[in-house]
Amino acid sequence: MYSPQSTSQRTDPTGRPGAVVPETEERTRDRVLHAVLEEGPVSAAELGERLGFTPAAVRRHLDALSKQGLVEVKLVANQATGAGRPARRYVLSHRGQTKLGNDYLDIATDALAELGRMAGPKAVNAFAARRFAEMERRYRPLVEAAGERLEDRARALSEALSADGFAASTRDIGLNQPTASMFSVQLCQGHCPIQDLAREFPVFCDEETQVFSRLLGVDVRRLSTLARGGHVCTTHVPVGRHQTPQPAEKRTRVKITRQERPR
């Protein structure tokens, strides 16, 4: 857990090497920004709990990041009931996504545009398919090692994506809601290193979705993407229907009926 009074070993203003000095505001703010990347959409209270900041301190940093255009507020309805005032959640803005590393994307976008002009759209599609085939090859052993349960496979996929810089996470939907008839998992990606490229060439999002479907063994559906203006990339993974237990009394009657059936 990070502390708001974090320190680091470096030379202080008097020139003494190795002196312990308070962490700079900029450094602390960068940690808040990365926490929003990894956890978003996330509330100020949740960020404070994760980083060890007071509510006042975390809101001060969020206000500063918001003024810089690096984070923005998203209003999220209560998932359990849908009632009440929507909660304020923080997510990275497009500028914040760019700040955290989309190096050389302008060059890559220009190169693919030139490829499309010279060889046609099919050449761009083939390039995207090859890139994501490599992702599928690397991820498959990790996902298969998680076993047969879709929830576990989705979490393994999330961990693999996070290792590649996608800041991924999973959320169970309908698990603790008795009235829900279906159970699903949402696979969320808070960062996309090729967001601007995918905006120009949607085939990259399409190929990634197909890879997820093949790795998980079910038809998944994209609910939102960063490339198309979403705050996160969200993939819906259907798990199945809730199993409603049959009342014990009813099971007993069925059993007796079978026993009393004439032979």
UniProtKB/TrEMBL annotation:
InterPro entries: ArsR-like_HTH, Carb_Metab_HTH_regulators, WH-like_DNA-bd_sf, WH_DNA-bd_sf
Biased composition (Polar residues): 1-12
Alphabetized CDD domains for the sequence: HTH_ARSR
A Pfam family recorded for this sequence: HTH_20
Gene3D superfamilies: Winged helix-like DNA-binding domain superfamily/Winged helix DNA-binding domain
Region (Disordered): 1-28, 239-263
Domain of life: Bacteria
Protein name: Helix-turn-helix transcriptional regulator
Gene source species: Arthrobacter halodurans
